[in-house]
Amino acid sequence: MDIDTGSSVRLEPWSEADADLLRDLNAPESTEHLGGPETEEQLLRRHRRYVELSADDTGAGRMFRIVLLPEEVVAGSIGFWVRTGDGEPVYETGWAVLPGFQGRGVATAATRAVAAEARAAGLHHRLHAFPSTDNAASNAVCRKAGFELLGERDFEYPPGHPMRCNDWRLDLRKPVRAAGTKPVGEPGRKPV
C-alpha cells in the first residue's frame, strides 16, 4: 500500500546523464502496467525525447528526475507534456519510482511538484493522468495529489498496446492540495 508519509522531493530537469535511470526504471516490476520492458533502442529514443522536452522552454512540457530529500538520492522520474484529449490540448503527466523507494509517498510528492511546474508553464489549465485501472498504487497517487476521477476509458500505451485506464484530472487554476484537506482561503478573502 502506498502511504504518503510526507516525503520531500526535488525535481531536476532530465539530462543526458539520466539514461541509466531510464534503464533502471525499465525493469519488469516497474513496467507491468505499461506493456512491459522496452528494448535498448526504444529506451534510447525515449531518453532522447526526454532530453529534448527538458530543453524546450515553450511550456510544452518537461521531464524530471525525482530526487528524494534529505537523502539526495535519485528515486525515479516524472514529467508533463501536451496531448490532445477529447478535442482540446491538455497536459498529461506520468511517473515511475524505483522499487526501493515505492510506498514512501515519493510519487505523490513528485506529482504535486510536477503539477506546480505545469501550472507555472501556463499553457493549459488541466493536467491529466491515465494509470491502468488495475494499478492501485498509481490511482492512489492521483487521489492523494488532489486529482478528480473522471472515469474509465480505453487508452493505447505504448502505441499498439491497448489498455483500460482511469482518467484523472487536476484543474491547474486551483491551488494544489492533498486529498482530504480543505483549500486555504485567498489573502484578503474569507473562506467560503
What characteristics describe this protein?
single chain; 192 residues; alpha+beta; seven-stranded mixed beta sheet; 5 helices; globular; disordered N terminus; disordered C terminus
Describe this structure as you would to a colleague:
The protein has 192 residues and is an alpha+beta fold. 27% of the residues lie in helices and 32% in strands. The chain has helices spanning 19-24, 28-31, 40-55, 106-121, 136-144, and strands at residues 8-13, 61-69, 73-85, 88-97, 126-129, 148-156, 162-171. It has a seven-stranded mixed β-sheet, with helices on both faces. It is globular, with a radius of gyration of 16 Å.
SSE topology:
Layout: E1 8-13, H1 19-24, H2 28-31, H3 40-55, E2 61-69, E3 73-85, E4 88-97, H4 106-121, E5 126-129, H5 136-144, E6 148-156, E7 162-171
Parallel strand pairs: 4-5
Antiparallel strand pairs: 1-2, 2-3, 3-4, 5-7, 6-7
How would you briefly describe this protein structure?
The protein is an alpha+beta fold. Helices cover 27% and strands 32% of the residues.
Shape: globular
| Biggest β-sheet: strands ordered side by side in the sheet | 1-2-3-4-5-7-6
Radius of gyration: 16 Å
| Number of E strands | 7
Main sheet makeup: 7 strands, mixed
Structural class: alpha+beta
Mean of pLDDT:
83
Helix content: 25-40%
In DSSP terms, counting alpha (H) and pi (I) runs of 4 or more, how many helices? 5
Terminal CA distance reads: 34 Å
Helix and strand run: EHHHEEEHEHEE
